[in-house]
Automatic annotation (TrEMBL):
It comes from Deinococcus xianganensis. InterPro entries: P-loop_NTPase, T6A_TsaE. Belongs to the TsaE family. It comes from the Bacteria. The lineage of its organism: Bacteria, Thermotogati, Deinococcota, Deinococci, Deinococcales. It holds the Pfam family TsaE. SUPFAM superfamilies: P-loop containing nucleoside triphosphate hydrolases (SSF52540). Keywords: ATP-binding, Cytoplasm, Magnesium, Metal-binding, Nucleotide-binding, Transferase, tRNA processing. GO terms for cellular component: cytoplasm. GO terms for molecular function: ATP binding; metal ion binding; transferase activity. It is found in: Cytoplasm. This is tRNA threonylcarbamoyladenosine biosynthesis protein TsaE. Its main location: cytoplasm. GO terms for biological process: tRNA threonylcarbamoyladenosine modification.
């Protein structure tokens, strides 16, 4: 039996992340804390650190190749040794129906964890999924992360 540690942030909580290392470390902590089959939503403007956090999460599952946002493909599947990770970038999606037509639900079910960027249109569909907002700070060497849900 494995014990899942609590998520590193409670709903409503914020934290300053100093440098890429802490961005990766939060992703890695989430990897260990999210139960199998979880969805994680990420929002945040250009350069806020969404891909960096995802890289940390995927890396913690043992997938060491570079991670990039699937802006044009919409979805990437990383065959991590610790379990498949689905990475969705819904920025260019006008209607979430497009994602369902790409078998989103089946891919989520078949993944250890699914990270969905810009997925506001799916928040109601996955009501238990945590939402993290990433923001720039006056200090360019830091980012602010807030768990919205
Ligand atoms: N906590 C942090 N502190 C300082 N720099 C960071 C932090 N997290 C990420 N960065 C840096 O910010 C830059 C942008 O990060 P990243 O590509 O992860 O952002 P993004 O939200 O995915 O952006 P985009 O919307 O353009 O895909 C990278 O150069 C990365 O090294
Ligand atoms: Mg990105």
């Amino acid at each position: 039996m494995s014990v899942t540690p609590p998520l590193p942030l409670s709903p409503g909580e914020s934290r300053v992340l100093r440098g890429l290392h802490e961005q990766h470390a939060l992703g890695a902590a989430l990897a260990g804390a999210l139960p199998a089959g979880s969805v994680l939503f990420l929002e945040g403007e250009l350069g806020a650190g969404k891909t960096s956090l995802t890289q940390g999460l995927v890396g913690a599952h043992g997938f060491t190749e570079p991670v990039t946002s699937p802006t044009y493909a919409l979805m990437n599947v990383y065959p991590a040794p610790g379990g498949q990770v689905l990475h969705v970038d819904a920025y260019r999606v006008r209607d979430v129906q497009e994602l369902f037509e790409m078998d989103l639900e089946e891919l989520v079910r078949g993944s250890r964890v699914s990270v969905i960027e810009w997925g506001e249109g799916l928040y109601a569909e996955y009501p238990d999924a945590p939402i993290l907002r990433l923001e720039h700070q006056p200090d360019p060497e830091t980012r602010l992360v807030t768990r919205l849900r």
